[in-house]
Amino acid sequence: MNDEKPRTLELPSYQRQYLKGRAHALEPIVQVGQAGVTAAVVKAVEQALIDHELIKVRLMEPEDKKAMAAALAESCGAALCGLVGHTVILYKPHPKKPVIKLPVRATPLEG
Length: 111
Fold this sequence. Notes:
Blueprint: H1 13-23, E1 28-32, H2 39-52, E2 54-59, H3 65-76, E3 79-84, E4 87-91
Parallel strand pairs: 1-2
Antiparallel strand pairs: 2-4, 3-4
């Protein structure tokens, strides 16, 4: 096993918004308890991301939900698409056969 830390997947806001819409009907697959982001939780989230690509994770009584959500995304190398209440939306494309097709903009919008 390598010692490199996975990097958080960065997505533009329109892709995160698209994924949040797709995640709306999903139920949380993994729950993070009082122990926080443990190795077992990270392993469960990584497996769920391989199986589903887009998942919801429920945080139970977090002290700092934003920090916990960011730590979970970073430890799994996933994109943090949203945090609604105590529910985190994570996305990571399947390494070999991605199922979810993200929208692509032809040209960047000018502000």
